[in-house]
Amino acid sequence: MSKFYITTAIAYTSRTPHIGNTYELILTDAIARYRRYIGDDVFFLTGTDEHGQKIQEIAEEKGVSPKEYVDGIAGEIRDIADMLNISYDHFIRTTDDYHVKSVQAIFKKLYDQGDIYKSEYEGLYCTPCESFWTETQLVDGKCPDCGREVKKTKEEAYFFRMSKYQDQLMKYIEENPDFIQPESRKKEMVNNFLKPGLQDLCVSRSSFTWGIPVEFDPKHVTYVWIDALSNYITALGYEPGKKAELYEKYWPCDVHIIGKDILRFHTIYWPIMLMALGEPLPKQVFGHPWMLFGEEKMSKSRGNVIYAQDLVRHFGVDAVRYYSLHEMPFAQDGTITYDTFISRYNSDLANTLGNLVNRTVAMMNKYFDGIIQPSDVAGEFDEDLKQTCLDAVKAVGEKMKTLHIADSLDEIWKVVDRANKYIDETTPWILAKNEETKPRLGTVLYNLAEAIRFIASLLSSFMPQTAEAIAAQLAITDMSFESVQGFGAIKAGTKVGEAVPLFGRIDVDAKLEELAKEAEPQVKIAPFKDYVDFEDFEKLDIRVGKVIECEKVKKSDKLLRFTLQVGSETRQILSGISKYHTPEELIGKNVVFIANFKPRKMMGLESCGMILSAEHEGELTALTTIKDIQSGAEIV
pLDDT band at 527, cuts 50/70/90? Predict the structure, then answer.
């Protein structure tokens, strides 16, 4: 029995993941299940990355603590993993106490040995990607990874001496040609990042607080690289200078499964950190492609996001697993739309696989009262069917060694297709008409049952619920890897179950109409307040004011200071809408404000009134008039 340690990247808890994100879980699970299937001692790690400025800002906007916010998203991510039947052995959260303790010890060790030093960072920062960039790295002035705006940032920080280990890493990659896969990704890392030379890496932040504190300098928090990447060893109990049973058993990792967009962090930053710690490097990092919506990357702002929860609700868990695994090539991006999903569901699952199992079980019940007959009357096409089954076992093994998951499923479907062809070749419905050919019919159905047993056994790593459903219908008790080393394991006399469709064929037009209707935006508004008398309304003096000056209030992230022209007088009002409007877009506009609120002090400035804004889902917009109107006009 060989040990096999496999991990996903840990999911960032800024938002609920879509199917493009959860594809990685399904992919890794199929590999982990297959390795258990062939007898390996597997440890499968997944989890959540829960620190950073982006999460702190989101939590502040929602009025909750960062921990409350990540608890909710981490719970959702774990629920999605469980829903998709992901067989992880451990789910790590970077807020877990043991991880925090170990990260602090790792940071201290690297600092003590001179690999980390304190300096100052000044540059351009992308909050969503948590990445620093230089001017030359930007694309059209924006983040080269996500295309969003970057902010100029200057702060004290600790840095990791990356260049110190550059030559050592280059040598490791040369001596271990399978370390980075696919090959195209390796060339990208070497040519674009290593050969031009590595810059020292910022590994702490001092401008926000949501992170693991640097133990010896608490005003700094550990930046994402040391915090998130080290989860792969802290989950095994690693702590510098201490022995941990799981770490000793499973490290180095056999393969990290990650998205191609974070390959640099896992094939450059992470190996160098391990070198600095004096620990072995992972054997392989596989950068999988993206699942696109049609030809575009999924994005909530584009409105083209598909969630695993919705797919499972409409099509079932194993249909989602099958599509995700089968439609993602080894090195190129895959694609998903509801049209392509339904098409693949109907053709591969309902028509090809489902029909094979349904027809076979139905014929056994119809012709032999559900009793599997002896296979003692051989015929012309039997050996080819048997050989196709045995060949598939070897072919799947070869494809799985190199992580060609979609190709592995194609090898299984060769058995499905061959078995369907076998039915057409042997014409069991004709054999059933004559008592003299009934023994041959028994053999034909036996061979079909055996072929389906091979299919169920091999499918157990990819579509476990379907494999179990097939086994239940054919009364298969052994789906082990050992059981498919030979053809003929089913015992004659076994009674099969009822023929129950595995995948019902979908009416394409009806389902697409249902999905379209479901996708229509359901606008939620705040509940209406209780009725008030007209006299109460009349107590409010609501006016129109023309904005003649507007500026941000110093030392405040929220407040704008307005100078309004109100008839022949001016009035100063402070409003907390800085995140939603720039001063420039408001100057010259007529805004609606309440004029008879008592003046109050805010940030040392007097505010004489309240500008009215509309609010929906956390977004604010100042109320203005459709036409230009005399400032000071009363709202009636």
Answer: confident
Asked whether 311 and 304 are in contact (CB, 8 A), the reply is: no
Is residue 214 a contact partner of residue 104, using CB atoms and an 8 Å limit?
A: yes
Q: What is the pairing mode between strands 255-259 and 285-288? A: parallel
Task: Name the DSSP class of 165.
Answer: G
| Whole-structure pTM value | 0.81
Residue 599 to residues 172, 548, 574, 609, Cα–Cα distance (Å): 69, 20, 10, 7
SS (H, E, C) 256-283: EEEEHHHHHHHHHHHHHHHHHHCCCCCC
State the angle between helix axes of 66-83 and 53-62 in degrees (0 to 180), rounded to the nearest 10: 100
Q: Kindly state the tokens that stand for 543.
A: 């006016």
Joined tokens for residue 623: 């109320």
Angle subtended by helix axes 405-426 and 317-326, to nearest 10? 110
Work out the angle between the directed axes of helices 464-474 and 355-368 (0-180°, nearest 10).
Answer: 10
DSSP secondary structure letters along 558-592: S-EEEEEEETTEEEEEEES-TTT--HHHHTT-EEE
CB 561 within 8 Å of CB 553: yes
Q: Specify the 3-state DSSP secondary structure of 366.
A: helix
171: Cβ contacts below 8 Å, ≥ 6 apart? none
For 3, residues 6+ apart whose C-beta sits below 8 A from its C-beta are 40, 41, 42, 43, 249, 250, 254
H-helix or E-strand spanning residue 3? strand 3-8
Map tokens 């506009």 to a residue.
589
Measured CA distances, 266 to 54, 186, 196 (Å): 21, 12, 18
Token couple for 214: 């640097």
Do residues 512 and 421 touch, judged by C-beta distance below 8 A? no
Contact partners, residue 604, CB within 8 Å, separation at least 6 = none
Question: Tell me: the pLDDT tens digits for 265-305?
Answer: 999 999 999 999 999 999 999 999 888 877 677 766 566 78
Residue-wise pLDDT tens digits, 153-202: 888 999 999 999 999 999 999 999 999 998 888 888 988 888 888 989 99
Q: Residue 369: how many CB atoms within 10 A of its CB?
A: 9
Q: What pairs with residue 431 in β-bridges?
A: none
Instruction: Spell out the long-range contacts of 553-560 with Cβ–Cβ below 8 A and sequence spacing 24 or more.
Output: 553/578, 553/602, 553/603, 553/605, 554/603, 555/603, 556/603, 559/602, 559/603, 560/586
* pLDDT value for 302: 66
Count other Cβ atoms within 10 Å, centred on residue 358: 17
Find tokens 């575009």 and name the residue: 296
